[in-house]
Specification:
Blueprint (H helix, E strand, L loop, with lengths): L2 E5 L6 H14 L4 E5 L5 H11 L8 H25 L3 E5 L2 H11 L5 H11 L7 E6 L2 H11 L28 H17 L4 E5 L4 H21 L1
Parallel strand pairs: 1-3, 1-4, 2-3, 4-5
Helix pairs in contact: 1-8, 2-3, 3-4, 3-5, 4-5, 4-7
The chain binds thymidine-5'-diphosphate (TYD).
Length: 228
């Protein structure tokens, strides 16, 4: 049926919006399923834990890229393709735009054409019908990250550990401000390059307003698919 993704830097509120969209779809009578990348199959969950739960494990940029892609390839084959084949709406919290932004730009694996063909290959040619990019100004993104991490996160303005909600920053969260600036810019560049697919939304909007904006767009998309 249809395949939609939600993207953005850490702390942009993607997971909340993805969940709300799935709830809304179900309320309106659609069968919907939610995946979060990396993850969603036994292999993809194992890869997730290698990538995110072991911040001291050395993983260079290229193997990091390949591991995210491997997790995605298994998810598409085992879960996303079969769900779409049975008429479900598939919502994915992150997909290959995250690889382009985090590994391509963040980790500076500059070969974007190669990354783009790897993305297409790992996704088995599947392209999201719509991607919502939740964009945040850099200062706001840094504030939200700091709230989620600890003193290990060496960034000016981070909150003291006693106010932190999480105990340890994951591998990506240790990367620092310049990394996140490159990631955010790459997401903006992707949105500019593919305006027919990627809708850039203001991540500072109230949660309800964002959910409404996403739902309005999703409803249009669904109406168009059932008409055509
Ligand atoms: P997660 O805990 O799901 O964070 P978030 O709530 O921000 O989505 O962690 C996913 C992390 O993995 C996040 O920092 C982005 C990163 N990531 C990549 O670097 N490349 C990728 O291809 C994907 C899917 C995620």
């Amino acid at each position: 049926m249809i395949f939609v993704t939600i993207e953005g830097v850490d702390g942009a509120g993607k997971s909340t919006q993805a969940r709300r969209l799935v709830n809304r779809l179900e309320k309106e009578g659609y069968e919907a399923v939610l995946f979060r990348e990396p993850g969603g199959t036994p292999l993809s969950d194992k890869i997730r834990s290698l990538l995110l739960d072991a911040p001291d494990l050395a993983i260079a940029p290229l193997p990091e890229l390949l591991l995210f892609s491997a997790a995605r390839a298994q998810l598409v084959k085992d879960r996303i393709r079969p769900a779409l084949a049975t008429g479900k709406v598939v919502v994915c919290d992150r997909f290959y735009d995250s690889t382009t932004a985090y590994q391509g730009a963040g980790r500076e694996i500059a070969d974007l054409d190669w990354i783009s063909s790897l993305n297409a290959r790992a996704a088995d040619g599947l392209r999201p019908h719509r991607t919502w990019l939740l964009a945040l100004p850099p200062e706001e993104a840094a504030r939200r990250r700091a709230r989620r991490s600890t003193p290990l996160f060496k960034e000016e303005g981070s909150v003291p550990p006693e106010q932190a909600l999480r105990t340890e920053p994951d591998r990506m969260e240790q990367a620092g401000q310049a990394f996140y600036d490159r990631v955010a810019k790459a997401f903006d560049d992707l949105a500019a390059a593919e305006p027919d697919r990627i809708a850039r939304l203001d991540g500072t909007l109230r949660e309800d307003d964002l959910a409404d904006a996403i739902w309005r767009d999703a409803r249009r998309l669904l109406a168009r698919r059932s008409a055509g």
